[in-house]
Amino acid sequence: MKFEYLIGDIYQKINDIEDKGEIASYIPELLKVNPNNFGVHITTIHQVNFGVGNYNDKFSIQSISKVLALILAYRIVGDEIWSKVGVEPSGTAFNSLVQLEADKGIPRNPFLNAGAIVVSDILLSNLKNPKEDFIEFVRNISNNTTLQYSNKIAQSEKAVGYRNVALCNFIKSFGKIENEPSDVLDFYFDLCSLEMSCKELSELFLFLANNGLTVQNNKSILSESQSKRINALMQTCGFYDESGEFAFKVGLPGKSGVGGGIIAIHPDQYAIAVWSPKLNEKGNSYKGMKFLEEFTTRSESSIF
Amino acid sequence: MKFEYLIGDIYQKINDIEDKGEIASYIPELLKVNPNNFGVHITTIHQVNFGVGNYNDKFSIQSISKVLALILAYRIVGDEIWSKVGVEPSGTAFNSLVQLEADKGIPRNPFLNAGAIVVSDILLSNLKNPKEDFIEFVRNISNNTTLQYSNKIAQSEKAVGYRNVALCNFIKSFGKIENEPSDVLDFYFDLCSLEMSCKELSELFLFLANNGLTVQNNKSILSESQSKRINALMQTCGFYDESGEFAFKVGLPGKSGVGGGIIAIHPDQYAIAVWSPKLNEKGNSYKGMKFLEEFTTRSESSIF
Amino acid sequence: MKFEYLIGDIYQKINDIEDKGEIASYIPELLKVNPNNFGVHITTIHQVNFGVGNYNDKFSIQSISKVLALILAYRIVGDEIWSKVGVEPSGTAFNSLVQLEADKGIPRNPFLNAGAIVVSDILLSNLKNPKEDFIEFVRNISNNTTLQYSNKIAQSEKAVGYRNVALCNFIKSFGKIENEPSDVLDFYFDLCSLEMSCKELSELFLFLANNGLTVQNNKSILSESQSKRINALMQTCGFYDESGEFAFKVGLPGKSGVGGGIIAIHPDQYAIAVWSPKLNEKGNSYKGMKFLEEFTTRSESSIF
Amino acid sequence: MKFEYLIGDIYQKINDIEDKGEIASYIPELLKVNPNNFGVHITTIHQVNFGVGNYNDKFSIQSISKVLALILAYRIVGDEIWSKVGVEPSGTAFNSLVQLEADKGIPRNPFLNAGAIVVSDILLSNLKNPKEDFIEFVRNISNNTTLQYSNKIAQSEKAVGYRNVALCNFIKSFGKIENEPSDVLDFYFDLCSLEMSCKELSELFLFLANNGLTVQNNKSILSESQSKRINALMQTCGFYDESGEFAFKVGLPGKSGVGGGIIAIHPDQYAIAVWSPKLNEKGNSYKGMKFLEEFTTRSESSIF
What we know:
The first copy, chain A, is an alpha+beta fold and 304 residues long. Chain A has twelve helices and nine strands.
């Protein structure tokens, strides 16, 4: 299959370029990772699996979890969720707090920190054992019982997450969060601490390339329409203020995390995960972005 | 072909619902149109053509012209264009002026008025007879020599376009426009005054569903990569602060105009144009949005 | 003395008008106050004391405390304080969070909540027993050992002060606060819970009309230059986004609190305190503003 | 009189310090002035006149004209003017356009460019021969028939005043300007082109220190209350985003111009004008600000 050759070839090329990114420094624990790690893994709906580099190493998926939290909340409360969080790109990172004020506590979209905090609040109100139920949900999708939170990462972020405390209390001040901010934040930091490898990520997210059904055993995680909508949201909002650039250059729905991971989906074809810890100035993996741009260009698999 | 039945059926349904929109009132001449006009036309890369309702009536395509202006400028100056205008969604209509100040005169994307004004300035600097050359370019793509500006519309907008005068002079004050603001605006208002029918629109834009090549005679308007990028831009920025909603509900790259027209593209399949003059509160055709949402849902042709 | 007659006369008049204000509802405990309370008290540097109405009743002085906190911090760290908090009016209440983001955690002035939180942090770092030392300082100025915090008010605000928690953590995220946000906020809420009567307020603040010296026993609280600067700050920033209006209509340096109190200073002449709990839409005492406008107009004692 | 000695002494000192300012470059004609000019002139209500340095040289008073335009409009339409322009400080230069959008075309105060443009529009609607009537009004106040506009300066600014064109058209787009923007701007640029010396300025503005009456012949220019209000406005809004700083350090109502002039008023005492063309980063005369700070400190004549 041509993907395998292509991925290997591009991996070599990108591996050799100078990495101009920087590891995220605001979560102390993340700084301990080896900055030279670089892994890629693709899983197709025809069950092709292929990886190169550190594709089996676990890393902190961080904001990629926001997609999973949104999916679980969407399953539980349905379209009602869109009264609490929007579906529009936010413009810039800079603006997120400004817009929260203008929009009276309704985050522009669920992939901003503010939006994911609101989603966490919804889960907290609707799950019996939020932390356990969420990991169970994720394990079920991927048929992988080894998936785990990292306590170290969660604690490290809790200790210094002042900006998120600010966001959560700000939303609470508008009456848009039901639970106590400290509980919401505890759960939010746990969510973000999930650890996975590129292989696990691409397997887990494959159902979004398959209209909401798992490929392995045909379980329905989302309806076809819901699945398409999650992809649309990742396309317009998945990379903060670099979302337009990602659509423009890569042309796939996707989501990045500050740990250096990126997941991208080609509807009806595949899910691909990339990991390289050093981030560009917009907070997305420097090499990850470069890899995916070259990959969709050479494979002509932008969805546009 | 199933599209024909579907389009006819949805047209009937949407035609009967109450139109909660309002005709744009800020361009006096636009108010003269019959608010009940409603037309749809699809053109596929396999040369299927099908229309219902007022699909042959000409209307003012307004901001849809911004895509054509961008394409011509992109052909002329290449990727250099992205140093003068960005590719990111702007968040909200409200923010456009704010962000222009924060970004020192570089518009967030070419589909904001500010961005299209900068594109107009680039064309003005690079075309011998800008007004003639532009219409010639558009006619060539669609092999349709009858396409015309509307002097009445252009004059009507020039007389009251204070906000655009403000935007243009604001950008000029940052040194980001080369020509005199009054010349740039004259050309900009001309561009926006183009008149077409749904049929003409869907035929004209079909090359964007065909990797940049015209279907009729295989002329290359844009490279494959450029064509995909224009589609990506329409996906993330084509509907002002309703762009996320359009991706979410319709799932096609597209562009709306304040005259009530919408063009949408399904890569490798078709271009579809809808026209209904009354606009929702975000400035996009009320019935047009409803039609396209139902159309992609029932035809399962969202690209996501 | 003409002030006595004037104050009595205006008091009657304002007492009779319809009070279009509303009691602040966001601190539950404040809602328990009698909304019809209305008191006025003047103290002149020639030791004239005169009050009408509820001038001896204690009320929650709230933001008026910010002036006292600033004065104590100014005494301790001197002009160094202005590297952590500005001296410019903020424009609007609405903007305070926006500008905090633009200004990277440096509040525009010490009378915004954000600014007073930064001042509280400075005091926390410089006082041995912050809560005790502060009340001691205030008692010393006014030779009044009965002044007290209200635990009920402080607790009531702590329970629901999400917006202030957001502000404090937001500033902390910029590294502009030294102590833990929860400690800073505890102290801040204590400061704001101070209770005084109009009589006590006008006696306490008289030193600002006397170039920084207490009138009773000539203690120097601030240097002459510092005293003038505090007055200048009250003039430009004392009434949130109604500061311009207050300068325009009343023409005295002053500071309001959400409990309905206002203190105003006429340099070289007097301090006057007004209290009426119902607030206008900008958060300042409805009757208090009306009283002072008429008072300076009829006594021709605007400083301008 | 002590002022004379003080002024001479401070003038020497400030004349010798390094001037860290820069001449305003955005109006080409202003660049032709000698950057080392430095003049001071005081006029007291007891008819003392004293000047040093280039106090008799004419310069472009620029924004200082905004005070005169406001006064004339205030005389004509009375308090109705405050429905079209506010009395609040704007926060920052940066924000002025932002706030204009938030406030739907109502400028925050009459000393912002936006506010002065609105005032110009009011004058245009209410004067028979605006340009002649205005200069006549100014000449009458000061009994000085030699006062003149500078055509060169006005033309120079008209040629490059894109930002002001933007502001004016932006306000017009909100329907808050009656006349055509080009007419309003022509008049506005004329107003700003007035030329005066320090001596003429301090004589002209003395009536604001005299409760609205000219000292020479007791003509009433404004009522006492109106006069105080103009002073209050100058105090809170006279120096853009350095207004708080000026109140804080100088402690007098005043107004600066981009030509390097400053006028300041001490109610019941004097008017003082300073001129030095090089501006600090906030757009106010570098040496002028330093001079006035030292002058009010040493003369203990801050109003606070």
